[in-house]
Structure formats: structure tokens, C-alpha cells
Amino acid sequence: MFGNDLYLKHYFYFHSAKIVYEPAGLTSSGAFLNIAMTIPGGIFLNLLFKEHLNWFSILLISILVGFFNESTQFIFDQYLNLKRTVDITDVMTNATGIMIGYICAKHGISASSKRINRGNTHD
Q: What is the pLDDT of residue 63?
């Protein structure tokens, strides 16, 4: 009733899987938790591939991770009938979390390395 009506109107069923095709619920606690859950993935990407990836690659990887999560959820729902919802909003929030994690790690690592380098010059 409080904003959820819009969210519930834009979906269809494919066999037993409910597929929400229009982004909604971006201000819900579930969206926040999806972002928080994927921030470590962005940090991990930075630590592993910081010299090899540009911003477009990071954006593409973050979107693909979201699609992978939702596709896996869809496949499991088809075979195991988990009654889960496949939602485009989750793809967006997963990608946002990975981007936030990557940016935080990039700036956090560069700031800490500057502090370490400053500390070494006083020797």
C-alpha cells in the first residue's frame, strides 16, 4: 500500500518464477542490503585487477555480476521451485555496490599508499 503497489504491478511469471521487469523499490531496505552485500566484490576487483581494468570494464563486470546473480536465481527457481523473484532492481543495486566498493578501494588504497610513502621519506 505504501509505494509497493507500483512495485507489484510490473511483473510477469515465467513458469513459477516471478520476473520484475521495471526497476522499483530502490529506496527499500532490500536494495540497501544488496548494495552492502556487493561492496566487497568491488574491493576485491580493485585488489586483483587495479592495473588491468578501466572504468568501462569495471562497469561492465558489475552489471554482469548482477545479471549472473539473477540468472542463477532464475535457473534455480525453475528447477527447484524456490518461489524467488527475479528483479532488475537487484541487478542495478548489485552493480552499484560493486562500483562503490571499487571506488572506495581505489581511493582508500591510493590514500594509504601516499601516507606510507610520506612516512618512508622521513628516514
A: 95
- 46 CB neighbour count, 10 Å cutoff: 21
* Max intra-chain CA distance, the chain: 68
Structural Rg of the chain based on CA atoms: 19
- The string of pLDDT tens digits covering residues 58-102 is 999 999 999 999 999 999 888 888 888 888 999 999 999 999 999
Burial of 58: CB neighbours in 10 Å, binned 0-12, 13-18, 19+: buried
pLDDT in the model for residue 83: 81
Q: How far apart are CA 36 and CA 19, in angstroms?
A: 23
Q: State the Cα angle at 94 between 101 and 110, rounded to 5°.
A: 10
45 contact partners, CB below 8 Å, separation of at least 6 = 53, 58, 61, 98, 101, 102, 105
- Provide the 3-class DSSP secondary structure of residue 11: strand
> Half-sphere exposure of 66 toward its Cβ, with a 13 Å CA cutoff?
23
Question: Cell for 87?
Answer: 528483479
